[in-house]
Amino acid sequence: MFDSNDEMCSINSHGGSMSRTDQFNARTYDQITDYPWQREGPQGTYEAKRVDEGLFVRVDMPGIDKKKVKINVEDDSLIIKGEGVKESEHECSGRTYVGSIDLCPNFFKLDEAKAEMRNGVLRLLIPKIKDGQQSKTISEISVD
Q1: DSSP-assigned letter for residue 62
Q2: Residues near 122 by Cβ (< 8 Å), separated by ≥ 6?
Q3: Distance CA 48, CA 51 (A)
Q4: CA Rg, the chain, in Å?
Q5: pTM of the predicted model as reported, rounded to 2 decimal places
Q6: Who contacts 1 (Cβ-Cβ below 8 Å, separation ≥6)?
Q7: Which residues are registered as beta bridge partners of 97?
Q8: What is the domain partition of the chain in residue ranges?
Q9: Which residues of 83-111 are buried (b: 16+ CB within 10 A; e: fewer)?
Q10: pLDDT tens-digit profile of 77-105?
């Protein structure tokens, strides 16, 4: 059984000189926010919502190839990074995205998380732990 205080998650985003934290309850609340993680270039969006299987996260990262997306795991946090390249001499730099998701301890099976990047959109499904299950310790989630 889970304590309701253990069901709070937070998404931390950093863009240029601004930082932002959004908290949501993993059981009852969906989080949809504009302009969260992008540090340079035109702004994008993300969505985090509870689904029957666990937590679904979508991050728009236009201009980023899946080979340039990394999802690292530190304790109960996911650190998502995407780095693009400058494609024109008129651009200041390529797009860079960085953000983290602080997950509820002992609520999700990070070792069974699935991530895919297609057409500049990262989709991540993190299953919830069922009674009696445990999650194995991992350091990275591969992106297909």
Answers
A1: T
A2: 57, 58, 59, 61, 69, 80, 82, 115, 116, 143
A3: 10
A4: 15
A5: 0.71
A6: none
A7: 38, 82
A8: 42-141
A9: bbeeeeeeeeebbbbbbbbbbbeebbbbe
A10: 899 999 888 888 887 777 888 888 888 87
Looking at the domain that runs over 42-141, which CATH code has it been given?
Answer: 2.60.40.790
* Per-residue tokens: 55: 């937590």
Q: What separation in angstroms does the CA of 43 have from each of 12, 14, 107? A: 16, 12, 31
- What's residue 6's pLDDT? 62
Residue ranges of the chain whose pLDDT lies below 70: 1-6, 13-18, 24-45
Instruction: Give dist(CA 79, CA 75) in Å, integer.
Output: 11
Secondary structure (DSSP) of 70-132 = EEEEETTEEEEEEE----STTSSS--EEEEEEEPPTTTB-GGG-EEEEETTEEEEEEEBPPTT
Confidence (pLDDT) at 43: 46
Asked whether 106 and 38 are in contact (CB, 8 A), the reply is no
Q: What pLDDT score does 41 carry?
A: 46
Distance from C-alpha of 116 to C-alpha of 121, rounded to nearest angstrom: 8
* Structure tokens given for 68: 């340039």
